[in-house]
Amino acid sequence: MKTKLLFSLLILGFFILNTTAQTIHDIEINFKKRTIDPLPEIKEADYYRIVVDSINLNLWKVSLNTKDTVLASSLKTPTFGDFNIGALSTLVANLNKVTSAGQAIFNSLDTSMSEMIYINNSADPIANRLDQEQRTLDSLSMVLDSIRERIDDLKYNVGIKHLSAFEEDDVLATTFDLKQALKDIVQLRKDIDVLNQSIKDKKSSYETFSKEHADEIKKKPKYIKEDKARKDVYGKFIAATNTIKEAVNAEKSIELLKSIIFLKVKIGTYKSLPIQFKGDQAQVKLKFEPRKPEYNLQSYEMPFVFPLKSDNYWSIGVSFYGSNLYDQRYSTKGKAKTDSTQVFTLVQEKEQKSEIGIATLLRAGEKFGDEKKCGVHISLGPAISISEKIRARLLLGGGFSAGKKHSISVDIGGIVGHVDRISNAFDLNEEYSQKPENITISELQVGYFIAIGYLFRF
To answer: How far is it, in rounded angstroms, from Cα 231 to Cα 142?
Structure first.
């Protein structure tokens, strides 16, 4: 039971640590307003991401390059791919080819239709059939014109959709529906097939009638002319439907839909892949370039560095210090004991009970406050006293600094060093027959210090 509980706690701890490590800091830029939000607090090994809002990715290509104090790298980020922006133009050109190349067919068809006349002789079965075929052809012409108008509407709506994706304002409002466009194309293809088959059936039926009544038709030049005209119109109808069907074949339909699918929303968002912060500072360079020169848009480049300064700092600086370490001072005084002898006594001289010196301190600390002008730190370093005797010292303490880069620091703490103390071999109250030598010895002592100096914060 205890083993299972321990295992569960380990899994939970790993999950929490893993979740914490996946935090992504967003650096948000508003492209329309040309502004950037305050940069986030970020630590080494954290991830950050560039987010550009209010940008039309149909017009702009975004390039991202980052560099930190440890490693420089050019990143592959999920930019809006260079889709074939000319796909729509190609499609429209193909449609235009269909309508322009086929226009001759349509013009010829219209001419042939206008040249046909109704005979209006109800007593003659041949005349009746010729008039019936003309009415059929008129009906087929209306269906064909309707399909042509539907293709033209589709071409227009796609063009407006495409243009609206590139305009900066909302002048070209459109309610284009991609799913509906797909349904329209499918229905158009079906309707064209139905029309084409209907024309072929009616053409075959009329050709059978014409063949069966060829002798009667040949008897009247008027019938010969109208019979030929109707056969000719049927042939042109089939050519016209084949031409229209080519406009919405599978390849062109897919090309049309691809050009719309790859269009982004006009006001969209660019997001980079997460980037790991590996050093003390990251240098980011964003480039915004028009996707095509003919858009007549200005390119932009946006470099920035973050964090501008670390809250932590290291520094080596010189300080002047004062401490409570001092040397004891003694002298000897001789006096005559007899006419031929002299004795000596020790005299304790006045002591300063302090010393001054110069220290070189290594400081490590952290800045605080809104403007990061103040900091607290620990300090460690060697020093030398510049009192009566020059001695080596070691300082350890902490302090406070004021200033952004060039700062004044105040440090306090402990000081360790050798000082002179009276030897245990001597006594101030004792008299000596010979003059005492080496009255003091060097001892290691601990005291306190206060230092004022200069600090350059990196």
So the answer is: 18
The pLDDT, as a whole number, for residue 200 is: 93
Angle at the Cα of 196 (from 194 to 200), degrees rounded to 5? 115
Q: Which domain holds residue 97?
A: 87-261
- Greater confidence, 421 or 405? 421
**98 and 230 housed in the same domain:** yes
Query: Helix (H, G, I), strand (E, B), or coil: what is residue 148?
Result: helix
Residue 4 lies in a domain: no
Angle CA 380–386–387, to nearest 5? 120
Q: State the total domains in the chain.
A: 3
Which pLDDT score is estimated for 315? Answer: 86
* Domain-embedded: residue 440: yes
Same-domain check for residues 114 and 178: yes
Long-range contact set of residues 287-290: C-beta below 8 Å, sequence gap at least 24: 287/62, 287/63, 287/64, 287/65, 288/31, 288/55, 288/60, 288/61, 288/62, 289/60, 289/61, 289/63, 290/59, 290/60, 290/61
> Which domain-ending residue is among 287, 306, 325?
306
101 band by pLDDT with thresholds 50, 70 and 90: very low
Q: Are 109 and 252 members of one domain? A: yes
Say which CATH number the domain at 30 has.
2.60.40
- Per-residue pLDDT tens for 266-325? 678 888 998 888 877 788 899 999 888 887 888 999 888 877 666 778 888 899 999 999
Axis crossing angle, helix 250-261 with helix 178-212, rounded to the nearest 10: 160
* Closest to 318 (Cα-Cα) out of 207, 224, 451: 451
Task: Report the chain's mean pLDDT, rounded to a whole number.
Answer: 80
Verify that 24 and 137 share a domain, yes or no. Answer: no
CB atoms within 10 A of CB 24: 12
Q: d(Cα 182, Cα 257) in Å, to the nearest integer?
A: 8
**Burial of 104: CB neighbours in 10 Å, binned 0-12, 13-18, 19+:** exposed
Same domain membership, residue 238 and residue 100? yes
Identify whether residues 91 and 27 lie together within a single domain.
Answer: no
